[in-house]
Design a protein that fits this description.
By secondary structure, the chain is mainly alpha-helical. It has a single domain, classed as ABC transporter involved in vitamin B12 uptake, BtuC, CATH 1.10.3470. The chain is globular, with a radius of gyration of 21 Å. The N terminus is likely disordered.
């Protein structure tokens, strides 16, 4: 057996991977059904079953109201699908960034990728670019902003021989502040109050805009990007041991790092375009998954995708019901969940 195979066979699971996978999938299904019950309008469980029978099997129940069908199938199910795509995509991006930087704090939010995408989209919306072909143009603009931000962070964070993982995090934080300032500027000078309110809600993260006709791009981007990461999971296992070890075993580390940077910027940019800024998902979830199945990326990546989707699904339900009928931004709750953990781990690294 080769050295690479030996590395990839390391396994620190508490329970079998397949059991965790089945358990999380069942939780996702239960959460989608349960999430359909709550919101600005409460729906009976029986009505949810009737809607699924109607849409999936064509079985109509005359007692089923049209309003219930609209709320469940046209509003809440698309939100659940977008939550799964966004949470899963951001989680797997965080896992990949933590691997290539060898820093447990790395994630799209802290490294400024989300802020760069947000600033680019805010500028596009301010200039009116979002008005035409926005479904295609805005994700592209967000990707450009995310990629620009990531390049700046790498340029500052690893400049010279003094580059370190902490310096990379500090560079990301600084770039985030700058791009967030630009986003705020574009928001505040917007002449329309309606657009201003839309901007504010978008910058704090929301899944309220999810509809069947705009799910294709975020879902396909998240799934395809995650599959590409999964194809290189063996290489990530080796890279996580250090660049010198990876190179000695024949891994092209530069190729993997460039691919990770582009894919992370793309997935994050698309999610920012459709959901706004959602912080700390890519930070929290990989840590949780490593605790339950170990560091093997062949298992870490797919389970991070599922757990990330489940996490954001739960966060969206909480945001909808905690002050119903008013809906709170999901970014508030992800920040409350991830912020304290980030501070704790940062303190440990500094010590």
């Amino acid at each position: 057996m080769s050295k690479i195979q030996d590395i990839n066979c390391q396994d620190n699971r508490f329970l079998p991977f397949w059991l965790w996978t089945v358990f999380v999938i069942l939780l996702i299904i239960a959460s989608i059904i349960g999430g359909g019950l709550f919101g600005s309008a409460d729906i009976a469980f029986a009505d949810i079953l009737k809607v699924f029978k109607l849409k999936l099997f064509g079985i109509n129940d005359e007692s089923l109201q049209i309003s219930s069908v609209f709320i469940i199938w046209d509003l809440r199910i698309p939100r659940a699908i977008l939550a799964l795509a966004a949470g899963g995509g951001l989680a797997i991006c965080g896992a990949s960034l933590q691997s290539i930087t060898q820093n447990v704090l790395a994630n799209p939010y802290i490294l400024g990728i989300s802020s760069g995408a947000s600033a680019a989209v805010s500028l596009a919306m301010f200039l009116g670019i979002a008005g035409m072909a926005s479904t295609i143009s805005i994700p592209i603009i967000a990707f450009i902003g995310a990629m620009l931000s990531l390049l700046l962070v790498y340029k500052i964070g690893i400049a010279g021989r003094s580059g370190s993982s902490i310096r990379l995090i500090l560079a990301g934080t600084a770039i985030s502040v700058v791009f967030n300032a630009f986003s705020s500027l574009f928001i505040m000078i917007t002449p329309s109050d309606k657009v201003l309110r839309s901007f504010m809600a978008w910058t704090m993260g929301s899944l309220a805009g999810a509809r069947w006709n705009n799910l294709l791009i975020p879902v396909v981007s998240s799934v395809l990007g995650s599959l590409i990461f999964l194809l290189y999971s063996r290489a990530f296992n080796v890279i996580s041991l250090g660049d010198e070890t990876a190179i000695s075993l024949g891994i092209n580390t530069n190729k993997i790092k460039k691919m990770t940077s582009v894919l992370t910027a793309f997935i994050t940019g698309v999610m920012v375009a459709f959901c706004g800024i959602i912080g700390f998902v890519g930070f929290i979830i990989p840590h949780i998954v490593r605790l339950i199945i170990g560091p093997d990326h062949r298992k870490l990546f797919p389970l991070s995708f599922l757990v990330g989707g489940l996490f954001l699904l739960w966060i969206d339900i909480i945001a909808r019901v905690i002050m119903a009928p008013q809906e709170l931004p999901i970014g508030i709750f992800t920040a409350l969940a991830g912020g304290p953990i980030f501070i704790w781990l940062l303190t440990k690294q500094i010590k």
